[in-house]
Design a protein that fits this description.
Blueprint (H helix, E strand, L loop, with lengths): L25 E7 L8 E7 L5 E4 L3 E2 L4 E7 L6 E6 L2 E7 L6 E6 L6 E8 L5 E8 L1
Parallel strand pairs: 4-10
Antiparallel strand pairs: 1-2, 3-5, 5-8, 6-7, 6-9, 9-10
Length: 133
């Protein structure tokens, strides 16, 4: 429960409330109550989805070469995993805008590999295929 005191104009503010990740793509209803009012006020909030994206520095890279990628569209301060062919390569914490930079090494064998970013809390993903030469 959050509580606040209204000013002379009836305005009030509460402390910040962290929205749980599992509330994404849902509607949540809260009730504003007043000790002196005759009625409660329902407040419905629509919570959207996360739309992650990964931008690799290149889509064609030499085997074993270094490269970078930028993840975006995650929750602020969410740990974001970078997976290469499904295996964890590195992890970064998203900044206040939901972005995270990565530096990693491309696989040394094969003709291509899959690059995936996944939010540790939201579990949303973005994936790209990179060609090795």
């Amino acid at each position: 429960m959050l509580s606040a005191t209204a000013d002379n104009n009836g305005n009030f503010a509460t402390d910040f409330f962290t929205v749980p990740y599992f509330w994404q793509n849902s509607r949540q209803t809260f009730t504003v109550k007043s000790a002196g009012a005759a009625y409660d006020i329902p407040l419905t909030v629509t919570i959207g989805n996360f739309y992650p994206n990964i931008e690799p520095s290149t889509y064609y890279v030499s085997r074993g070469a270094g490269m970078t990628a930028k993840a975006s569209g995650f929750a602020a301060n969410e740990p974001v995993m970078l997976l290469v062919n499904g295996a964890l390569a590195t992890q970064q914490t998203a900044d206040a805008n939901g972005s995270a930079p990565f530096v990693f090494t491309a696989p040394s064998s094969g003709s291509s590999f899959t690059l995936t970013v996944e939010g540790s809390y939201s579990h949303v993903q973005s994936m790209r295929t990179i060609t090795l030469h």
